[in-house]
Amino acid sequence: MTAPETTADRLVLTTACAAAGLASDGAEPVRLAENQIWRLPGRVIVRIARPGQMAAAEREVRVARWLADNAIPAVRLANVPHQPVEAHERPVTFWEELPPQEHGTVADVAFLLRELHHLPAPDIDLGYLDPFVRVPERLQAAVTIDDADRSWLHARHRDLAAAWAERPAGRPDCAVHGDAWPGNLVRITGTPRRLMMDFERFSLGPPEWDLVSTAVRARTTGAVSAAEYDAFCEAYGCDVTEWPGYATLAGARELRMVTMAAQHAASNPEWIDQAQYRVDCLRGRCGPRPWKWKGIM
User: Fold this and answer.
1) Are 167 and 200 in contact (CB under 8 A)?
2) Count of domains in the chain?
3) Judging by DSSP bridges, how do beta strands 85-87 and 44-48 pair with one another?
4) Residue 62 sits in a domain of what CATH number?
């Protein structure tokens, strides 16, 4: 979703580039929304985040440098020594532009996660994984969901949070991507080169959280076929659905997907039916898994 460029948008960009020692002449908007992406001549991508997101931007920079230091294939920071910079209260980061890319396969996701999870826990501040981040805010914004369904979702959140606190032991904690699906772990077009992107949800936590994302797409939403899921498990080296804590983490993933759809339905009427369908699925109104959930956004 890209909005028309405004004078204020261009001013933020110009100010940020000047602070980083870069010229903004010839910059082209790639995506203008709450978060903005611009392309500079010389293959530099500028990401302008929302006001109040400086701590998150600083963490993304720390993660990018740590991944580079450990030779994990990932998008790299541009040669701007001191970033993020702040421009008109908005944090701004600078990245190397990638060649044309496409979504990876689920096996690509598994290969990259295996490399990431085998690293020792980093000595940088990542914060500990919160599988329910923004769920209460999303439920508050979900005005298309009736009171009975919203109350049920709140109760589901409480039950899952209690189960998360008492989850069975799994693999040792490590750095986790937090949003590991093929849109965030891509393949450079025409090559076998795989790259990790989008570090917003990086944290320290159980590696199973990253694996559950693909398992839910296979077992819950039907977006991943049985053959694709088998390839994912073979590439990574285990099947997370065999872990006793799977149901808890899968429940948290499902809840996130439902509340995200419900939040966006509040301002996008075309998603109201999908949001309600997801609620109905969780409430047992649509038969057993897998369900066919359509993509949001």
Assistant:
1) no
2) 2
3) unpaired
4) 3.30.200.20
